[in-house]
Amino acid sequence: MVLVAFEGASPAEKYTSVERRHWAFQPRAAVQPPALRPPAQHPIDAFVRAKLAGKSLRQAPLADKATLIRRVHFDLTGLPPSPADVDAFVRNRSPKAYEDLLDRLLASPAYAERWAQHWLDVVRFAETDGFEYDTHRPDAWRFRDYVIKAFAEDRPYDQFLREQLAGDEIGNTNQELRTAAGFQRLGALRKNAGNQEVASSRNEVMTEMTNIVGAAFLGVTLGCARCHDHKFDPIRHTDYYRMQAFFAPVWEKDLDLGSLEQRSAWEAAKKEHDAKLKELRGQMKKVVDGEEKGRVLARIRDLEETPPEPPPAVFSVGNDFSKASPVHVLARGDYQNKGARVGMRPLGVLLPDGGAAEWPADLKNPRTKLAEWITSPSHPLTARVLANRLWAYHFGRGIVVTPNDFGRMGGRPSHPQLLDWLANQLVDGGWRVKPMHKLIMISETYRQSSTNDAMAAAGSEVDPENALLWKYSRRRLDAEQIRDAMLAVAGRLNAKAGGPSVIVPVDSELVGLLYKPAQWAVTKDVSEHDRRSLYLLHKRNLRLPIMEVFDAPDLQTSCARRESSTHAPQALELMNGPFANDLANSFAARLDRDARTPAEQVDLAYKLAAGRAATVKERALGVKFLATHPLSEFALAVLNLNAFLYVN
Questions:
Q1: Which secondary structure element, helix H or strand E, spans residue 250, and what is its range?
Q2: At CA 286, angle to CA 281 and CA 289, rounded to 5?
Q3: Which distant-in-sequence residues (6+ apart) come within 8 Å of 612 by Cβ?
């Protein structure tokens, strides 16, 4: 779409050359890797080593193969390698052994599951509404499966974004595209006596839709301009509402997947259910006796918490232009304090000088046009934001340390030329992600050791956060990796993929805190409880203790990066928690079955949990421990080792 000059722009809406000068709003540079002597074999290494040389630093030696395969497995699949995988890789002398390993893991289902979790963090995926009621969204799991499928297929990122932003406009009857469009309903939703069309609720819904586009796709804190001009970035108050105008006609609209028989059966069951409720509520008004009133009230609550299961559907949205919300500039974001009405337009600072006209109000597919603007190959933000996210997940720190904020208050890029080079590689490669993984992971920068004795003192002094990558940063596993790795080493991981989410048992006191405890209906098939954490119910008002203590996000807002805190409840959960102790028993049973002597059991435990054999000292301590303690306690101790919980 051609953007014409907007002569009517007020001075407040025009953008100065200084505002447009910020690095993130500039076009990507056509950079080339620095020429080094001796030359680097990989472009990434050239960029990184040039920066290090300026600080009189150099990279660490390459990690050993056992360390590397464990690092790669957790990075790409979120799971530990098997002892057989480690042995085979260590013995493989082929010059293509490492590349073959990457190709195999990138093609595995576990890769798609692991990297889907990263995207679900960014878009704050949840299967409940949040707030007081935290009502469940029975079909929201389909969005999770859509994301997994997209990563498995290496769907081009520009297409991936278009499908989520405008899938319903692109293919209104296409189940997968409608599922993708469910992205716009992932935010928390405040219920007001079941009425979602009141002005305050509608304002909150549209705010959620607008803010996530800024954070997830553009890497800007767009939401800061909701109440006034952005305090730091050149994003005007009017910019915010012009972006919001693209979502004015968007409403909840599921795609029914049920058969006629299913629909008829549900309607009949619902009619009967509602009639019983009406009858009981009528009785409630007539009952005088306190005990009898309590019994009737209990029956009412039971019925309210167990409505008939509706037919399957796609959790999605659709346009209804007859109900399009008029979008006004709201003073302080207050829906009752309306200013001028505005129409659709992308961020002014990224448009031609002098601003640009609002886009036609009669656009039939407004979000498709917005998506085309966001995914334009020349857009200065989109490719940079994704390249930075990929880098951050591989190194624990982004080139821009604030992945959701490329603005003035965000981090400055540690390697700006490298970031542009990576973004250019992404676009030139058709926006495909798998080649980007390989490009990054083949570099010596990625393959270096997490220890650099030669540079330890200087590196710690000059670059204590290792932003310049003079070594690989040792990292603790995140919450899902810890839980899934525990299941894997215990021999209990259920590799089943996809489908409705699983609800596992938790302490009754936690369930009792829910508005409706009946929401936490534990999945009856016990084998389902051992599935990957990705497939557990993403409930906003209840997180599993092991997930919460290890910094899993709260699902309320976009999680650009996982924090890694260290505190006492983590040790308490791993030592005393029922989940850890249950898996320690299974781990012990596996060791008892597959190894004969205490020394062999110690070695196998380390191979499974740490990806290597026990050292001489570790073996001696383990054998000594087993002489006076049961195997289950040794297994529990191994699950608490840094060698299990950290990746070097």
A1: strand 250-252
A2: 110
A3: 66, 67, 70, 86, 606, 643
Q: Which residues are CB-contacts of 389 (< 8 A; sequence separation ≥ 6)?
A: 118, 122, 398, 403, 560
pLDDT mean by block of 10 residues, the chain; 648 residues: 35 75 96 89 96 96 98 98 98 97 98 98 97 93 98 98 98 96 96 67 94 97 94 94 97 94 92 90 84 86 83 96 95 92 94 75 94 97 98 98 96 97 98 98 98 95 97 97 98 97 96 90 96 98 96 96 95 96 98 97 98 97 97 98 97
- pTM, entire model: 0.94
State the DSSP H helix or E strand holding residue 294, giving kind and residue range, or none if neither.
Answer: helix 290-305
Instruction: Give the separation between CA 494 and CA 530, rounded to whole angstroms.
Output: 5
Are residues 405 and 214 in contact, defined by beta-carbon separation less than 8 angstroms? no
Q: Are 118 and 292 in contact (CB under 8 A)?
A: no
Question: Residues 255, 313: contact at Cβ < 8 Å?
Answer: yes
Structure tokens that stand for 272 in this block: 């009967």
- The stretches of 107-191 forming alpha helices (DSSP H) are 109-122, 141-152, 157-170, 175-181
Q: What backbone phi and psi angles, to 5 degrees, belong to 490?
A: -80, -5
Query: Which two three-digit tokens encode residue 486?
Result: 């525990």
Distance CA 629, CA 632 (A): 8
151-157-160-166 Cα dihedral, nearest 10 degrees: 170
The region that residue 156 occupies, defined by phi over 0 for left and psi between -120 and 50 for alpha, beta otherwise, is beta
The token pair at 94 is: 């082929």
CB neighbour list of residue 11: distance below 8 Å, 6 or more residues apart: none
